[in-house]
Amino acid sequence: MYNNWFMQFAPEAYRTTRLQTTKNVEATLKATGYLTDTGPDLLKAKPFVLPVLRMCTCPPLAVDRLIGLAKVSGNLIKSMEKHGRMPPQMPRQNR
What we know:
Elements: H1 2-9, H2 12-31, H3 40-45, H4 50-55, H5 63-70, H6 74-83
């Protein structure tokens, strides 16, 4: 019932964001074999899955915490999350 209420009465911006987020989650679940394949090769091939994978943690893992735990540049994570791609040039330590 909540979903129906939300989609009927929430502001347009929220409804649009919810629809896009739903599509992103569905695409991530399919791309990862329903979260059974989340290795580095998948992340390189489909960087758009990173935000959904990050939010699957409980509590959701903050971007800066992910950067620290993964020991990668902030540019790498931000490029994957914001632009859905690997940065054009990666620093040597991340290869």
